[in-house]
Predict the structure of Hypoxanthine phosphoribosyltransferase.
Amino acid sequence: MAFYEQEVGVLIPEDKLQARVRELGAQITRDYAGKELTFVCVLKGSTFFAMDLARAVDLPLTMEFLGVSSYQGGTETTGEVRITTDVSKPMAGKHLLIIEDIIDTGLTMSFLLENLRARHPASLKLCSLLEKPSRARTKIDIDYKGFVIDDHFVVGYGLDYGEKLRNVPFIGVMKGK
Ligand SMILES: O=P(O)(O)OC[C@H]1O[C@H](OP(=O)(O)OP(=O)(O)O)[C@H](O)[C@@H]1O
Ligand SMILES: Nc1nc2[nH]cnc2c(=O)[nH]1
């Protein structure tokens, strides 16, 4: 029995996740053909998704990582978004695709879009595995979207509960919460 089975129920199973990742990868491959694409992966939550998606994109892409934190390990946003790790190169003139795990209130992405736009990229688009529209506090346009979910605090496939459970292989919900 896996360590998480007693506390985590399945919301989106692994095979459905992987199939959707392959579809998104194919779409991104078509849309960015002939362009130099840079993934801006948002730490820490998007890492599992970003690694699988990168392998599903048939283009010579560049990977950058940008750390932001606002939940501080809890289940409610603090409302204060902080950059914890910045990208390693200038972003000016590049075709950027932000890779995120979830758009919930939208506060993190609103901050990030403004921050990256100010660095004058050639283009800036957003790919998010999940969207939770019921809790949106600001409108975020998602160019590539995996799944729309109801109002659950989800875990797994990169998403944490108190910094744990990121290595659960599916998108899950906490049982009894
Ligand atoms: O739309 P919002 O309400 O702003 O929530 C979305 C953000 O919350 C999570 O990050 P978190 O601050 O928990 O950091 P982490 O990715 O390191 O877990 C998640 O990875 C998103 O970046
Ligand atoms: N783990 C986790 N982090 C989040 N950050 C914003 N929404 C969520 C969520 O549902 N789960």
